[in-house]
Amino acid sequence: MSTNSFAADGARVLADLNTLRQMGAYKTGVHKPTFSEPHLQSLHWLTDRLAEAGLAPTIDGIGNVLGTSNKSGPKLLAGSHLESQNYAGWLDGPLGVVYALEAARVINARDNISGAVEVVSWCDKEGHFGPLLGSRSYIGDVSNAAIDAARDRTSGRPLREALAAAGLAGRERLRAEPGRHIGYLEAHIEQGDRLERAALKIGVVTAIVGIWQYEITFTGQQNHAGTTAMDVRADAGLALARFCVAIDEAFPKACGPRTVWTTGHISLDPGAPSIIPGMAKMQFQIRDTDPAIIGRLEGVLDELGAAATATGPCAVAVKRLRTGKPALMDESIQAAFESAGSSHAAGKSIRMPSGAGHDAQMLATVMPAGMMFVPSIGGISHHWTENTSDADIVTGAQVFVAACAKLLGAEAAR
Amino acid sequence: MSTNSFAADGARVLADLNTLRQMGAYKTGVHKPTFSEPHLQSLHWLTDRLAEAGLAPTIDGIGNVLGTSNKSGPKLLAGSHLESQNYAGWLDGPLGVVYALEAARVINARDNISGAVEVVSWCDKEGHFGPLLGSRSYIGDVSNAAIDAARDRTSGRPLREALAAAGLAGRERLRAEPGRHIGYLEAHIEQGDRLERAALKIGVVTAIVGIWQYEITFTGQQNHAGTTAMDVRADAGLALARFCVAIDEAFPKACGPRTVWTTGHISLDPGAPSIIPGMAKMQFQIRDTDPAIIGRLEGVLDELGAAATATGPCAVAVKRLRTGKPALMDESIQAAFESAGSSHAAGKSIRMPSGAGHDAQMLATVMPAGMMFVPSIGGISHHWTENTSDADIVTGAQVFVAACAKLLGAEAAR
Predict the structure, then answer these.
(1) Class of domain A3-208+331-413 (CATH, top level)
(2) What is the structure's pLDDT at A112?
(3) What is the mean pLDDT of residues B395-405?
(4) d(CA B68, CA B55)
(5) Is the distance from CB of B122 to CB of B135 less than 8 angstroms?
(6) Distance CA B274, CA A212 (A)
(7) Each residue of A268-286: pLDDT tens digit?
(8) Second label for B143, Cα 20 to 30 Å away, from A15, A233, B180, B378?
(9) Are A267 and B272 in contact (CB < 8 Å)?
(10) C-alpha–C-alpha distance, residues B35 and B19, integer Å
(11) What is the pLDDT of residue A163?
């Protein structure tokens, strides 16, 4: 039996992705927030395709779609997500779902494989209502109280209302069944330009970084911008600016080779041109696969805050909002991706960490998990211009299907 | 005739101010945005008081209230404003209106003065719909198109809608009548702590600073906060922070003794914790009474912007949104306030510039104008804790009434 016997149908993969692209199309990308009409349409499209592929489809009480197989033997879970960030790219999510669907179509019907690929679409990976909501629910990390409290971050719509409108109120939420799956596989666009810059085609993910999120608050004295002399001001906005510059000077001396840190949001209170801000806040995050490095950087952050408070005139408070857990990817899944890559993109794969968060990091807490990346043109992500060449999409599909077949024990895929 | 014959009735002044404080009361201050119910109530309260004082009241098509006298002889225009900033102080505005009303009550009935004090309440000095809207309308600086376009900065309510709801749609707008007034007088709380720190009671305003307002835009490259390495980032937020710090280092070397500068608003685009901001904007203002100093500082700002753009990785654009015109206060009005101050607060007045903007700066373009300040406790302004002691309020009223009488030629006020 040749490798080709587990070949993905590249034209079918591209056709499926382009069909999903029409749902919520925005310029060359999509606008498909969680539980929007085009998102629900995409979920229902998937359940139809799953049934055609011989899988039993379910949409659960949080919007996860799962297609299960009644075949005996080992089972792989594979997928990604179908909603998008607002006005974002067409492949971020759907690529991994369609690869998983294609793997199920190519592999499950074969008599020479005893097991099956089961396909999943995790709901709200993009966190319109909560980060990695569906996969967290699946591993048992989302309480009913959290669902009661969740609202769409853009519109403020309650999650309960969105679930009811989608006809999902009252449905059970699927939970991971211990022992059912031998592993979880997810394909995704890289969202960076490392593959493209090195003319590589496949990234085999070694670990998904943890994200440590901080809110840093600066407290000064609100006052009139015209009547308050410069020497008596306690300008919280200026204190924040000084702090950003201090981080930028101190962190490179303590970080790891791939650490990244970002101030993504700043607000001044009250934020009027003629009022000296009495309070300022910044959202700051650090990402690394090594908690020891993060620990060191958090120490630097605390020292900078204490030093700024001691110097005055504003007080600085550093509060950790979220403690990231880096997720290590399973070694045998990495090996399967690498081996499949050597068949379909010889010399063009590389092992690399993921700087972005993915559902695979949640799955990794309950089963062996692995991820692979395909190149992002220009490294662009979370923007409607995000893209990957058709040839790279098809190569990725071949590698993904071959890796699934290999993990299910098909010699031919080796 | 003694000075006392032009004495303000301190109890009446305090009673009026406390009546206005009840309209839109918020903690110990008021929340009285322009054309809110409590603001309209305050305007109608004023028209009743003007009529009682023998003045003919009008509310015009922009919400200015004017009480005119049919007495012959020289006329002074005196007043301030009745709306407040959101959740702000009780005296910022009403103090000057009640002093003017008191001056009209004390002076206009006297046969030994041929002229009269006419009383005005300028609408929306606080700029809910547009800065110094009423006084700018009075000097002919507000077009109908500008009124069509104006919206409440908090609620977004169109000005036309607010005017219609207030019953003012279609009314004419009052315009300054050349030659009608020999001058404009306005009293106000200081909004700073210079008087209090020096145990002074009266500030005689020499000039109102001009406000130069800038929008400074930083353009970088929006990207994913996890997948983009530090060395390839063009983080517009970090560029903004560096710029704020650079201003803070460069301006003290080029500023005047009373120059102030403020970054009151910052926004990052898109402003999400996991996205490197591709664009950032800051609202920056400079205030001084000397345009030459501002010119020098604007040069520094442009140089800093050009240097930052040249260094990269972000481009900096400095755009002047508003060119301030410092307004010099009339020398004879300053002398009248000073002379009245020497009678009622001997040795406790000082000449000083105003760092805040006031309606008097608009009036100064069409007639001689002058202002006086009373102390602000703790220098607090634009906050509901703003306050002035009752004794200082009464002293200020005496000085204001005496200065009006003096300018109208009453020997007794000298």
Answers:
(1) alpha beta
(2) 80
(3) 97
(4) 5
(5) yes
(6) 11
(7) 999 988 899 999 999 999 9
(8) B180
(9) no
(10) 18
(11) 98
- A 212-251 residues with CB below 8 A of B? 213, 222-230, 232, 235, 237-238, 240-242, 244-245, 248
CATH topology of domain B210-322: Alpha-Beta Plaits (3.30.70)
- What is the average pLDDT across B102-119? 93
Please report residues of B whose CB lies closer than 8 A to that of A211.
Answer: 226, 274
> Given a cut of 90, is residue A308 above it in pLDDT?
yes
User: A residues 254-283 near B, CB within 8 Å?
Assistant: 255, 258-268, 271-277, 283
Cβ–Cβ gap B224/A272 under 8 Å: no
Residue A412: its pLDDT value, please? 45
Q: Is B87 left (phi over 0), alpha (psi -120 to 50) or beta?
A: left
With residues binned 3-state (H G I as helix, E B as strand, rest as coil), the percentages for chain A, rounded to 5, are 35, 25, 40
Does A230 contact B260 at a Cβ distance shorter than 8 Å?
A: yes
Mean pLDDT of chain B: 95
pTM (2 d.p.):
0.80
pLDDT at A324 > cutoff 90: no
Q: How far is A241 from chain B (nearest CA, A)?
A: 4
Suggest the residue from A240, A260, A262, A279 to mutate for an interface test with chain B (most B CBs closer than 10 A): A262
Q: Which residues of B touch A237 (CB under 8 A)?
A: 244, 263-264, 266
Kindly state the tokens that stand for B215: 């929008």
pLDDT at B403: 97
User: Residues A208, A327: contact at Cβ < 8 Å?
Assistant: yes
Q: Which amino acid is at A146?
A: A
Is A263 within 8 Å of B237 when comparing Cβ atoms?
Answer: yes
Identity of the residue in B260, B272, B382 whose CB atom sits nearest the CB atom of A265: B272
Residue A326: list chain B partners with CB under 8 A. none
Model confidence at B414: pLDDT above 60: no
Q: CA-CA distance, A46 to A67, in Å (whole number)?
A: 9
- Residues of chain B positioned with their CB less than 8 A from the CB of A275: 262, 264, 382
Instruction: Report domain extents, chain B.
Output: 3-209+327-413, 210-322
Q: What angle do CA B103, B105, B111 make, to 5 degrees?
A: 100
Helix residue spans in A367-414 (DSSP H):
390-407
Judge: A228–B379 Cβ closer than 8 Å, yes or no.
yes
Chain B positions in Cβ-Cβ contact with residue A232 (cut-off 8 Å): 193
Cβ–Cβ below 8 Å for A261 and B230: yes
- Verify whether the Cβ–Cβ distance A245 to B242 is below 8 Å: yes
Residue reference for tokens 């201050």 = B29
Phi-psi region of A132 (alpha: psi -120 to 50; beta: other; left: phi over 0): left
* Cross-chain Cβ contact A285/B273 below 8 Å: yes
| Whether the predicted pLDDT of A148 surpasses 60 | yes
pLDDT tens digits for range B303-314: 999 999 999 999
pLDDT of residue B324: 82
Flag whether pLDDT at A376 surpasses 90.
yes
ipTM of this complex prediction, to 2 decimal places: 0.80
**Least CB–CB distance from B226: residue in A252, A272, A355:** A355
pLDDT interval class at A3 (50, 70, 90): very low
Q: Which CATH architecture has domain B3-209+327-413?
A: 3-Layer(aba) Sandwich (3.40)
Q: What is the mean pLDDT of residues A302-314?
A: 98
- Of B179, B201, B211, which Cα lies nearest the Cα of B398? B201
- Point out the residue among A192, A242, A261 whose CB comes nearest to the CB of B224: A192
Q: Which two tokens stand for residue A52?
A: 């055609």
pLDDT, average across residues A365-370? 97
